[in-house]
Predict the structure.
Amino acid sequence: MALDPALESTFRVGQVVTYDGSTYLVISEPPAGAPDTSPNYILLAAAGETGATGAEPQEQQEQGLQVRQDRVRLSHLHQVLV
């Protein structure tokens, strides 16, 4: 559940919340403050770095076609060898 300060007083121990891209576990009831600075939360998973932009749709199609062609070749080779 994403952190909503208006609902914070309803959070229970053991509840998992997300805040600013990170995931936290509530360890004190009711929790107070922002999870990244409050002792009422434990960090479970920190937000990661922004990654590289993926391939354009045309590149993805071409890459997918290449993978399928490679699988067909391997399947054929397997049949020949067996």
Observations:
- The CA atoms of residues 10 and 30 lie 7 Å apart.
- The longest strand covers residues 22-26.
- The mean pLDDT is 79.
